[in-house]
Specification:
By secondary structure, the chain is α+β, with helices and mostly antiparallel strands. It is 35% helix and 17% strand. The protein folds into 2 domains: 257 residues, no CATH class; 202 residues, Gamma-glutamyltranspeptidase, large (L) subunit, C-terminal domain (Serum Albumin, Chain A, Domain 1, Orthogonal Bundle), CATH 1.10.246.130. The protein is globular and about 60 Å long.
């Protein structure tokens, strides 16, 4: 990875995301007098058009908003169709069993993003809701040149689609391919059906999506091609305002949203590390501790995170200092394979925005797994997520699949404060990478004193299962060899698993400093 970006400094407002046309759309809203929420929404809506394969109209959304005095969280993730059962999921399980089907209708949950856009705007927005769709509708109707990283990911998506069979997958090819291929970098791509869909959402405050024309079309397509989603499932959808959860780390407070998202995994790992002086450790030992703390945190997240409406999640017990101390004692000098503890019971885009009044937004939305389910709604130009893959098929598990339930969700926005004052919004997209990216970004900021761009530029590691660990080449041969000596099974590569991040920090004298992911096409734009 070649790093040549510098941090952006801006006196009034900033938008940072992974695609430059979307960042420009948000900045234009700020300059027209919109606030940070307006800018974040314009950016998010435009991202559904200019970065398909990472998010879409049929995806989910989570957000954290700093309103000048407090943090507010929005969970706009979808629930499964009421008719979904464990038996149906098990009978259609992926080859080898044990996990939900990845593509097709079975993992489709009700999309939450359009409701999330509406609800964020209703509470915090300044400009008219429909105005925030202008750039997205224009790019969908008139076309835009595809950016390089988007084109790269799109090609992989088309390769996956080529192996799918069934009537539910036909429309996706009509919308997202050109004669069976993905558009190349720089090639103009138009999606006039998505332009019309976005305009319907804009003009109806998303009612047409859940209770009108678009919702009827989604339900009809499901009924015709083997899906369980119904008009009643869509009409019942509601997003949820939630209180963000926190842990302390070296004098800072790190904030995430509560389950059903996996943000608690980042907090658990940071709480474990807060009890040792990692800054005094040699770099190799510190890196080993980061990885082992993350493993412990994921073991707990995978055991306990579920829809809190369906099963109690022991958030307070997981985040208690005593529990973090007990988990900390399990870290040794070599790579381990930890299981969950026993606490006391009690494909994604990320963006952030800040304005001249101090309003700040941390927002993430996603299809999951690239283009998600590969089910697209005929005539409406968008695909549906496959978030149901996050359910467990184990009877008795808190996250076991069931109807009307929200699955374990990987997308997480983050926020950093100190002494009750905002530092700023941050996030790193990328499925299982997200808590790991949050951990690494926070520690680069707090322990190493890096600005947001330098923190995002820093080489990353990624753990998924067992002792297998992937690291970027920029980490260096000596670091990789040290991890191997500690028992980690290290692969050095430049794959896409390391995520795309953004961050905006407040400056002591006013204004902001921002960074944008060097591994993506995007940018931080300010004025």
């Amino acid at each position: 990875m070649t790093v040549n970006r510098k941090p952006l400094y801006a006196p009034h407002g900033v938008v940072a995301t992974s695609q430059p046309l979307a960042a420009s759309a948000g900045l234009a809203v700020l300059r027209r007098g919109g606030n940070a929420v307006d800018a974040a929404l314009a950016t998010a809506i435009t991202l559904t058009v200019v970065q398909p394969g990472s998010n879409d109209i049929g995806g989910d959304l989570f957000a954290i908003v700093w309103d000048g005095t407090a943090l507010h969280g929005l969970n706009a993730s979808g629930r499964s169709p009421a008719a979904l059962t464990l038996d149906a999921a098990q009978s259609s399980a992926a080859p080898g069993g044990g996990t939900m089907s990845v593509r097709g209708w079975l993992p489709v949950t009700v999309p939450g993003a359009p409701a999330g856009w509406r609800d964020l705007h209703a509470r915090f927005g300044r400009l008219p809701f429909a105005d925030l769709f202008a750039d997205a509708v224009g790019y969908a109707a008139d076309g835009y040149p595809v950016s390089p990283r988007v084109a790269h990911n799109w090609r992989r998506g088309v390769e996956i689609h080529a192996g799918l069979r069934g009537p539910e997958f036909a429309e996706w090819g009509a919308v997202f391919t050109r004669d069976g291929r993905a558009p190349a970098a720089g090639e103009l791509f138009r999606n006039p059906a998505a332009a019309r869909t976005l305009q319907l959402i804009a003009d109806s405050a998303a009612e047409e999506f859940y209770r009108g024309e678009i919702g009827v079309a989604m339900a009809a397509h499901a009924a015709a091609t083997g899906g369980l989603l119904t008009k009643d499932d869509l009409a019942r959808y509601a997003s949820t305002w939630v209180q963000p959860i926190r842990t302390g780390y070296r004098g800072y407070d790190v904030w995430e949203l509560p389950p059903n998202g996996q943000g608690i995994a980042a907090l658990l790992a940071l709480a474990i590390l807060d009890g040792v002086d990692v800054s005094a450790m040699p770099a190799p030992q510190r890196r080993h501790w980061q990885i082992e703390a993350m493993k412990l945190a994921f073991a707990d997240a995978h055991a306990y995170v579920a829809d809190p409406d369906a099963a109690p999640v022991p958030v307070a017990g997981l985040l208690s200092p005593g529990y973090a101390q007990r988990r900390r004692t399990l870290i040794g000098e070599t790579a381990a394979l930890p299981g969950p503890g026993r606490p006391a019971q009690g494909g994604t885009v990320y963006l952030c925005a800040a304005d001249a009044d101090g309003l700040m937004v941390s927002l993430i939305q996603s299809n999951y797994m690239g283009f998600g389910s590969y089910v697209a709604v005929p005539g409406y130009g968008f695909g549906l997520q496959n978030r149901g893959v996050g359910f467990s098929l184990s009877p008795g598990h808190p996250n076991v699949v069931a109807g009307g339930k929200r699955p374990y969700n990987t997308i997480i926005p983050g926020f950093l404060t100190r002494d009750g004052r905002p530092v700023g919004p941050f996030g790193v997209m990328g499925g299982h990478m997200q808590p790991q990216g949050h951990l690494q970004l926070v520690m680069s900021t707090v322990d190493d004193g890096l600005d947001p761009q330098a923190a995002l530029d820093a080489p990353r590691w990624y753990w998924h299962t067992g002792r297998q660990l992937r690291v970027e080449p920029a980490l260096g041969t000596a670091a990789a060899d040290d991890l191997r000596r500690r028992g980690h099974e290290v692969t050095v590569d430049e794959s896409d698993v390391y995520g795309y991040g953004q961050a905006i920090w407040c400056l002591p004298d006013g204004g902001y400093v921002a960074g944008s992911e060097p591994r993506a096409d995007g940018c931080a734009a300010g004025y």
